[in-house]
Amino acid sequence: TLELYNEMMKSLEQNLAKVVLDRCHGDGSSIQDERIQILNSFGDSEFEITEMSMEDNNPAGDETDRSNDSLYYDIGSCYQNKTPNHHPEHEMLKKLCRKLETDCQKVNEEVKDLQQVVWQQPHKIDKLHEEMVENNERMKELEESNVRLISECKNMNVTLMRQCAQFSIHDDLIETIHQENVDLTNTQHVFTEQTGKIQNIIEELVNELRLHKSKLDETDSMKTILTRQVNKLNERTVELQEENEQKTEQIEELVKKMETLENNLETNWSKYYESTQNKIVAHQKLNKDLKQIVMKKNVVINMYKKEIKHENGTEGLIKKIEQAERKINLAMKKRKEMASRTENQEDSN
Q1: Ordered DSSP codes for 78-134
Q2: Which position has the higher pLDDT, 167 or 104?
Q3: Which of 47, 149, 167, 177 is the least crowded, having the fewest Cβ atoms under 10 Å away?
């Protein structure tokens, strides 16, 4: 698409140079008729016709010595070896597409990292589950052992109490038995605390898994939004391409009409100049035709400036049009001076 756009811009610059500088019409018809003819050629668009002063559009230092007086000189070399300007909106679309591709790659990398984390969590959970099962089994064994010990202690206590009742048991033996019971109770509390910690760890892992799942859902929704934006940008690119093709066809039609105007100007004025005996009248008609050419040339230039500004303002192309406009004014000024010198010479003779 970018290569096609560059070729279209190059063709536009070449045709624009030919239309603005080489194609003018001045067969003596009225300005209103010419304006109607140009408007009919390009639809209902309105063009502002302004008469530009030749002296105002001739900046100092732009005069050149030309041996050829002809109004129709070729400045096509001004447009040679010039790279066509890229379309700013097209460049913006390209940058935005590249940014979207980069964001998609980052999102895919984050998804892969999250998947790795999620894949590792089941192994940790299985391991913790196995440890919890082992601890539960050990706790059951300890509880059974504790029950047996308690039962044995009770039996021992009963036996000791009976023995104490029968014999005089030392207080130290009673204290030792009591301490053993306390130790067994503390051991049971320790195992209960460990079981609570294991349950808390399992709950934290479950919460982390839920958080990772929500991030994956957000990533999927983001990918959907990015896909929609890319589709919209592609549709806009196709619309711009179709608009450029239509404008290219309009420019080609304008070139053909300006070629016809040029041929009429060359033929009509040359025949008139050769057939008339009064050269002063001929030069007066030349000056009138030059004014009409300036007005027609302004219509064409203003039209192209309007089209170019509608395309987001290609400043380089506008400068080339203004430069061509100054050169046309300079050539017309020299032709007018030549006509004035000829008229003065014939008056003096």
Answers
A1: GGTT-PPPPPHHHHHHHHHHHHHHHHHHHHHHHHHHHHHHHHHHHHHHHHHHHHHHH
A2: 104
A3: 167
